Amino acid sequence: MRDIAVFSGSAHPALAEEICRHLGVDLSPSRLTRFANDCLEVQLQANCRERDVFLIQPLVPPVQEHLVELLLMLDAARGASAARTTVVLPHYAYARSDKKDAPRISIGGRLVADLMWPPAHHAFWR
């Protein structure tokens, strides 16, 4: 098995621990900091270089906060030269917003997916 690192967001750490127990790997540490202006900062505190990184974070309430945390974790993993990043998303809160059923509305499901999985050409900008 390739060397992996599994990180948990704050939405459901018990789920991440259970997954790691089944995989027989340790849950890698991360740090979440909240600034005075309510902005978040995430630090992945384990080596990600050339490893397959798994980020476990269901989008449960508060959905927007957990989404931003996940996006920050993804950015940190990519910036740390992870070989691959995989998001484990047991609950996708925007799944019902997958089509345009009225004029002048956004398709939230597609937007959130695009934020997590940018086009392939972005990989060349690292």
Please supply descriptive tags for the structure shown above.
kinase; Pribosyltran_N; two-stranded antiparallel sheet; 20% strand; ribose-phosphate diphosphokinase; Rossmann fold; alpha/beta
Q: Layout of SSEs?
A:
Blueprint: E1 4-8, H1 13-23, E2 30-34, E3 40-44, E4 52-56, H2 63-79, E5 84-88, H3 108-116
Parallel strand pairs: 1-4, 4-5
Antiparallel strand pairs: 2-3
Organism: Lentzea roselyniae
EC number: 2.7.6.1
Protein name: ribose-phosphate diphosphokinase
Written account of the structure:
It is an enzyme of class 2 (transferase). It comes from Lentzea roselyniae. The chain is of the alpha/beta class and 126 residues long. Helices cover 29% and strands 20% of the residues. The protein contains three helices and five strands; from the N terminus they run E-H-E-E-E-H-E-H. The protein has helices at residues 13-23, 63-79, 108-116, and strands at 4-8, 30-34, 40-44, 52-56, 84-88.
CATH topology: Rossmann fold
- The gross shape turns out to be globular
- Using the CA coordinates, give the radius of gyration: 15 Å
Helix-strand sequence: EHEEEHEH
Average residue pLDDT:
90
State the CATH class: Alpha Beta
Low-pLDDT residue intervals, each spanning 5 or more residues: 121-126
Largest sheet: 3 strands, parallel
Strand order of the largest sheet: 1-4-5
Number of strands: 5
Percent helix: 25-40%
Determine the oligomeric state from the structure: single chain
Structural category is alpha/beta
Protein name: ribose-phosphate diphosphokinase
Enzyme class: transferase
Keywords: ATP-binding, Kinase, Nucleotide biosynthesis, Nucleotide-binding, Transferase
InterPro entries: Pribosyltran_N, PRTase-like, Rib-P_diPkinase
